[in-house]
Structures are given as structure tokens and as C-alpha cells.
Amino acid sequence: MSSTQSERLRELLEPLVSSQGLDLEEIAVDAVGRKRVLRVVVDSDTGADLDRIADVSRALSAKLDETDAMGGGEYTLEVGTPGAERPLTEHRHYVRATGRLVGFRLTAGDELVARILRVDDEGLDLEVPGVKGRKATARRLAFDDIGRARVQVEFNRKDDKTDVTETNDKNDKNDETEEEA
């Protein structure tokens, strides 16, 4: 997609996305066979559920239908949210990733994986996980030192641990209920 078309689409669609309480993160037009696909990525500080995505999709579709922003050819509109391992490029992305594990490529060439604890205007306070039984360490990272950052997928997130006793108590109650039946 040319930057002119991208800029025109952004100017057209961003007010609609904002009116729905969302941020317009990305616009891309890709050729798929003879058709084109307009992909619009939206997000917010509180996330974007399916109802909000559907509402903004309808609003964008109506606006695109009344303009010639996509030209006369056929196209498909896809509206979604950023993926799980999205790159962090804006201050708001770091704020939304607070508490998440992030992989950093530093401008000095080093790589670092750490959990974002706090974000301010100058940078990040991080918790670097300990290795081989060592305790986690705190680290401050300035935005200027970050070359690239990407949220990491965690299957066993630190704050997602379930209390085993609570789970066992629920299972015991379910067993008692089944026995009484």
C-alpha cells in the first residue's frame, strides 16, 4: 500500500475508531489473488472485546462504502486486535504490557527478557528473572536504549497460579454431591 493511500485511510478511519473508544494501531492493504484485503488493527487500554470489534467494523465498513478510499475494486475488510507477540512501538503499548514478560533488543546489541513493572515518560522499571535458582533483579531501562521490544507468550504466568488447596476443596465438594445423587 502506498504511503499516500495509507495516510488517506488513516485520516478517514482514525476518527471513527477513536469515537468507539479504541486506538487505531495499524492499517494494511494486501493483495490476495484478484481481491484486496484491508486489515485494520485496533486496541485500547482495557482491551477490545468482540462486541466493540463488531461495532467498529460496521462503522468502518459504512464509511468506506460512502467514499472511494479503496477504489472501485473488490476488497475485504478485516478488523482485529494486535497479536499476542506484537511489537511494542508506542508509549501506550508499554503501559498496556505492564506485568507482562517482554523480549528486548537493546540499541547496544544486547538482548534482555524481563517483566515490565512500571512505565513513565523516560523508561521502564523491569524485573529480570533469576537464572538457575537465583532471585530476580530490578533494572531500569530508558526508552532510548530500546531498539526493539516484543511481548512474550507465557504459558505459566507468574500471577496465574491457582491455589491447589482451593482446587482440591472444590473437587471434594463435587465428589460429595455426586455421591449424594
Describe the overall structure.
The chain is α+β, with helices and mostly antiparallel strands. The chain is built from 4 helices and 8 strands; from the N terminus they run αββαβαβββββα. Strands 7-6-5-4-8 form a 5-stranded antiparallel β-sheet. Helix 1 (about 5-20) crosses helix 2 (about 50-65). The protein is elongated and about 60 Å long.
Beta strand %: 25-35%
Count every beta strand, where a strand is a DSSP E run of 2 or more residues. Answer: 8
Estimate the global geometry from the Cα principal axes. Answer: elongated
Spatial separation of the terminal alpha carbons: 64 Å
- The percentage helix is 25-40%
Contiguous uncertain segments of 5+ residues: 160-181
Order of helices and strands: HEEHEHEEEEEH
Give the strand order, joined by hyphens, for the main sheet.
Answer: 7-6-5-4-8
Taking all Cα atoms into account, the compactness measure Rg is 22 Å
Count of alpha and pi helical runs? 4
Mean pLDDT value: 84
Q: How would you characterize the largest beta sheet?
A: 5 strands, antiparallel
Helix and strand content put the structural class at alpha+beta
What keywords describe this structure?
single chain, 181 residues, alpha+beta, three-stranded mixed sheet, 4 helices, 8 strands, disordered C terminus
Question: Outline of this structure?
Answer:
The protein is α+β, with helices and mostly antiparallel strands and 181 residues long. It is 31% helix and 32% strand.
SSE diagram, text form:
Blueprint: H1 3-19, E1 23-32, E2 35-43, H2 50-65, E3 75-80, H3 91-96, E4 101-106, E5 111-119, E6 123-128, E7 137-142, E8 146-151, H4 164-180
Parallel strand pairs: 2-3
Antiparallel strand pairs: 1-2, 4-5, 4-8, 5-6, 6-7
